[in-house]
Amino acid sequence: MPMSEYWAPIAELCQWTTFVVVALPAARFLYQNFVVREINHPLDYYSNRLRTKPPIFLFIIVVLLGGAGLSANTGELSQFLGTVPELAIVVYLQGWMHMISAWFTISAAAGLVAALLYAIAGACAVLVVLIPTPPGDEPGWVYSVAYLGVQLVSVGWVRVGVRRHLNNDNGGKIVPDGAELLAMSWEWVVCRFVPVLLVGSNVAFLLAYVITNETQDKAADAGGA
User: Fold this and answer.
1) Whether 29 contacts 50, CB under 8 Å
2) How far apart are CA 85 and CA 91, in angstroms?
3) pTM: predicted TM-score of the whole model, two decimal places
């Protein structure tokens, strides 16, 4: 039995958990910005933007929840979860960290924006790593390593470019005041959490692989006897 059959239920659980992870900051944003007194409203860049322009908030919710629901109805998401669940798991885990980090260090609105940006960037990264056919009989495992590697390389490349623009070229700020906090949160997640996720996921996949092979070998020996 391939490892994907063991990891597929966990990947599906991550899928449904993601709906809850998105709903929590959305509810928090609505409460903090439209229920409590104005004097208690969060004043960060992202809360101000989403509070003064509610269609942006609605757009984010529609894209995140509507996109996931559409993928589930077409069967593409189920195929993804069943074929390469190891990749799906690391994709979901990193997305949760981006949202949670932005939520607790900036605001719930920033968490929602981080989720939207990650949904786009993560989908693009998945499409890139799925182009080649990996060696071996565990493609999801290989793809998960490649995906996290793409995250590390891309953020490192962007960080070098931004620092060169600001320091060497004496360029102006690329984003409005306060918006850079989300980029700092994103960098922290990729540089601090992704290496831990890379090591932890590989250890888990390796243990499952060893246990699966031992179980299959014992079953084969028992059948031969």
Assistant:
1) yes
2) 10
3) 0.90
